[in-house]
Write a structure and sequence with these properties.
With 404 residues, the chain is an alpha/beta fold. It has nine helices and nine strands.
């Protein structure tokens, strides 16, 4: 009997092994459109190779070690004139001096769990709306002398809460500085030290930098959301602007629980193709922000030709989940055309799944979004920013994909 079970198991293993395409050669993808023969070939051969490249050479591996984490609901109550419920939660990680403060606004009239947009903010939760009940993080910028505006609601134009709540979505946000400060501190502060091995004082060349840490923390917020019955965690869109757009793309690539991924003006190291060297280059970004990527990424400074795969690979890692890439006309530094072409070059992977990508599409005119497929794109008139025009498109996109 035992022998029969073993031989059946052995046969199953052979079948499973032979299901792998054995004749597929992996060679450098560069910035080429990612065209493969089958979903199976993509998932079993190319996706793992591309994913490994981004982990090892670009954003750095996230830790595999578990660190004890706890949540605490700090307060909850009516907000936005009664149309929303504001909830604040702290996430504590062992080894971190301060908690990650999660700020949530949820539609008050919901009759069940609601879909949500989850994203980081730049300067503190209290900046997304002028609401005196928002707890100001100890890590938030404190004075104008630092070149930062500490005012409540200073970033409200980036978070059109009324529009989002009226559309039936929750907004969930955390401040980037609660996770890892955005300067080159040698990874002495923030989240990294909690994960060092004995005697370690900085991440290894292939280990996570700041963007990796930010993306990881969005997954930890998702862990919390999975315990909160107010949120429909099958319908969480991860969103970010600029450096936080690079972060949302990496969060989407690393965590399949994010049902939609939105990159707003993410540019170099985000959606844009690096090989074009238009606007910000890999060399420039590594020089100005040496802490964002892993040290291995320095190999590609002024050496973009050596990239095994360009940023279209990052977008493709999100497939088959819907992805939205957006640009702005005055944001030459982020290379709008490079962002569009990258979304186009990732599209064949979506099309393998029978989904609508952007293959064959031309760069649209300003303010003419290409919606309706699984890879969406728009270029908005105006500067490097995220505003209510952008959000309007993201809500339409989410409504379409969440069947609302
Ligand atoms: C710029 C940086 C960009 C972009 C931007 C931002 O200074 O060069 O890569 O991320 O900051 O986050 O606003």
């Amino acid at each position: 009997m035992k022998t029969t079970i073993l031989s059946i198991l052995a046969m199953l293993c052979v079948v499973a092994a032979s299901a792998q395409p054995t004749n597929v050669q992996v060679k450098k993808y560069g910035a080429e459109p990612l065209r493969f023969s089958t979903v199976e070939e993509w998932e079993s051969v190319h996706r793992p190779v591309i994913y490994n490249f981004f982990q090892k050479e670009v954003y750095g591996y996230m830790p595999t070690r578990q660190v004890p984490m706890s949540y605490k609901e700090l307060c909850s109550g009516p907000a936005l004139g009664g149309k929303a419920i504001r909830k604040q939660v702290s996430i504590r990680l062992e080894g971190m001096a301060t908690p990650i403060l999660v700020l949530m606004y949820m539609p008050a009239n919901a009759d069940g769990p609601v879909p949500a947009f989850l994203g980081m903010n730049f300067k503190g939760n209290h900046q997304i709306v002028d609401d005196p009940a928002i707890i100001i993080s100890e890590n938030a910028p404190k004075g104008k002398e630092l070149g930062e505006d500490p005012t409540r609601g200073a970033a409200a134009s980036r978070w059109p809460l009324d529009m989002i709540i009226d559309a039936g979505y929750a907004v969930v946000t955390i401040y980037r500085g609660d996770v890892d400060p955005d300067f080159d501190d040698g990874f002495k502060n923030g989240i990294h030290p909690s994960f060092y091995a004995k005697g370690q004082t900085a991440p290894e060349a292939h280990e996570w930098g700041t963007i990796g840490a930010w993306a990881w923390s969005l997954s930890r917020v998702m862990d919390y959301l999975e315990t909160d019955p107010a949120i429909d965690t099958k319908k969480v869109a991860v969103i970010g602007h600029s450096r936080l757009g690079k972060t949302s793309l990496w969060a989407g690539a690393t965590d399949p629980r994010f049902a939609i991924v939105i990159s707003n003006d993410s540019g170099c190291g985000g959606a844009a193709l690096s090989i074009r060297k238009h606007g910000e280059t890999v060399g420039a970004i590594n020089k100005s922000f040496p802490h964002w990527f892993c040290d291995n990424y320095n190999k590609y400074s002024n050496n973009e030709e050596a990239l095994f795969v360009d940023q279209q690979g990052l977008i493709a890692l999100i497939a088959p989940r819907p992805v939205y890439v957006a640009s702005a006309t005055l944001d030459d530094w982020a290379d709008p055309e490079g962002e569009f072409l990258s979304a186009v070059a990732a599209s064949p992977v979506y099309e393998l799944y029978g989904l609508k990508g952007l293959t064959g599409k031309k760069m649209p005119k300003p303010d003419s979004p290409i919606l309706g497929g699984h890879v969406a794109y728009h270029i908005r008139t105006g500067k490097h920013d995220i505003n209510s025009y952008d959000w309007e498109q993201y809500i339409k996109f989410a409504n379409f994909h969440f069947g609302r």
